[in-house]
Amino acid sequence: MQPSPPTHQPDERGLITECPQCGRANRLAYERLGQPARCHDCQTELSSPVAPFEVEDAAAFKALTTRSKLPVLVDFWAPWCGPCKMVAPELVKVAQAGAGQWTVAKVNTEDLPELGAQFGIRSIPTMVLFQDGREVARQSGAMPAAAIQQFITTAR
Ligand SMILES: [Zn+2]
Q: Which residue of 43, 56, 65, 151 sits 20 to 30 Å from the alpha carbon of 118, by its own alpha carbon?
């Protein structure tokens, strides 16, 4: 069995991730995403996000999308949405393929309706690509991983 990939939890300053060696929680600052990072305690190398992570509050969302050094693909989704479920495993592939080049974040529009309203999300899933603090592209509807990756690489 393969070990599960490290998880990353966004807060208002960066992504919290546990050191695979000593278990210490480290924060990868948004401004330094994509650059090599090491554990504060034991100097073990910490990985960039290799899986989609859920954004749980609006402040973390704002910090992530305005300060991230890497492009951020945001998937606006909801638990009741069938196509969103189809897209979820595709986003896992996209996040893995883009480790260190882009990050994939998810926003549950049931939990954070204010973000859906702020960005005028009318159908889900909708994917919005942020780079250098602004929206550069968006696309609604389910897509396979290859199409999502193409969407990211052609937009940035
Ligand atoms: Zn450590």
A: 151
Q: Is residue 8 part of a domain?
A: no
Give the total number of structural domains in the chain: 1
Catalytic status, residue 42: no
- Using alpha carbons, list the distances in angstroms from residue 85 to 4, 76, 106: 21, 12, 12
Q: Is the N-terminal amide bond of 52 cis, ω within 30° of 0?
A: no
- For residue 106, the CA-to-ligand 1 centroid distance in Å is 27
In the reported structure, the alpha carbon of residue 100 is separated from the centroid of ligand 1 by a whole-number distance in angstroms of 20
Specify if 88 maps to a domain: yes
Range of the domain at 56: 49-155
What are 17-74's pLDDT values in tens digits? 999 999 999 999 999 999 999 999 999 999 999 999 999 999 999 999 999 999 999 9
Which CATH number belongs to the domain containing residue 85 in this structure? 3.40.30.10
39 is catalytic: no
